[in-house]
């Protein structure tokens, strides 16, 4: 196929000047020997555009092309399109045997169910361990006992100081003996209370304290079990998602609307992911036409935006003119070192799918 572009140029056209006519007689010289004036035919200079045509071999290519390949390995069962026909976006093109991937999905679902069951059991055990620890801490609240001992000891010391302060006063007769007896009674009460609390702390069973330690260890173990069960459940969930994704890849759909080419493999063939080309899909509502121009031509045509202002048309292989006009797209500024040319790209609408 060839592309033509039309560059409007401006030239001056001069009308020629002719002296006389061949079938006229010479004018008679006036009397007295004088020559008659010479007749001159005149014309006007006009300016008009002249179209200059240039032809280049062009390579047509689709605006968007995709090789259809499988993402999973398997046996090709069937295809659902007509070679060379039009398909729509998301239309099913191929079917890979899904049975191995259905089995993987079923296995992954079973593993996820087991993992979730272990997680539920671990959380239940953690709740039980925490309840047991709480009961043990209620039975042996060492912090509360220590606080009671400290408080009783503080009261005893205060009463002791009061007795020591009043003892010399009563000996001197400065205060009545009844007053000192009241202070002495408060000391005796504080001492009895301290001894009682201290004895209760001392008599706290060692086994009760051991129960608290065991309960705390059980809680830590249950927490670690929950963390491990959560990780196992997440892994099983990811494995299921991957299996379901691979199963979905067994149905191969068109990524966009376009024309699908010839079949790359026959049904029954083993398809290798990423390697086997099943078909080629092209979006051909608009086509690119690439053609080379020399560096000299590029410099001439790049002046005054001639690439953008030119019109483009296609001549088909049989010599007929393609009816849809083209538009300039771009010039690839990378020079082909082998040919010394740059690639110019135009685009042509292809509503009837003729190209």
- The top level CATH class name of the largest domain: Mainly Beta
The biggest sheet, with number of strands, parallel, antiparallel or mixed sense and barrel status, is: 6 strands, antiparallel
Total beta strands: 13
Round the Cα radius of gyration to an integer and report it. Answer: 53 Å
Number of helices: 6
Helix content: 40-55%
Low-confidence stretches: 1-27
| CATH architecture type of the largest domain | Beta Barrel
Explained architecture:
There is one protein chain. By secondary structure, the protein is an alpha+beta fold. It folds into two domains: 1-8 and 55-96 and 251-355, RNA polymerase II/Efflux pump adaptor protein, barrel-sandwich hybrid domain (OB fold (Dihydrolipoamide Acetyltransferase, E2P), Beta Barrel); 105-245, Helix Hairpins, CATH 1.10.287. Helix content is 43%, strand content 28%. The chain is elongated, with a radius of gyration of 53 Å. It starts with a strand and ends in a 6-residue tail after the last strand. 14% of the residues are buried.
